[in-house]
Amino acid sequence: SVVQSEVDGHKAAIRELAAKRDAVERECRDLSEHVEAAKAELHRWQREYEQLQTQVATSVDISHSSEQHKTLQASLKQVSDSKQRLEQQLAELEAGVTQRGQTLASHRHRAQELAKKRSFLVTEMKALRATLLERHRALREKKMTTAITNSFSAGVVPMATNSIMGAEMPAGPSDTYQA
Q1: Largest CA distance in the chain
Q2: With 0-12 CB in 10 A as exposed, 13-18 as middle and 19+ as buried, what is 97?
Q3: φ and ψ at 94, to 5 degrees?
């Protein structure tokens, strides 16, 4: 009777530990999925970063944009390092089931931090892209203005009709004019 109750107690403890182990394994799978999603997001950010680097190379004033790129690159490296640390912690979690409660809470907190950091980086990347596109547009406009100015200085001037005399005259300075 005492032995039977002790056996039943052990069975109940084993079932409870098995249930806890199953819960931790589910949490581990969830964390693994989050890590994989973070990896995919990191790869996407890296592709966007490479595209932005190409756009920056064609920009006239890249010093400010370059600093922003360096900052974003450092942030992306931090995300990558954080991801690697999470993967190591996940392996330790599977090995040490008895410490699963505290470690699991730590993973959740870190995943939230990564989600916040990801949102911040996405916002920064969008702002940088908008800045680069605006600078590219301004550069294009400046090139067009310069080309028009150069064509005027080269004497390629459209003919305009002089309304007073009714004769066609060049719209620019005459040949006798000296600046």
Answers
A1: 128
A2: middle
A3: -65, -35
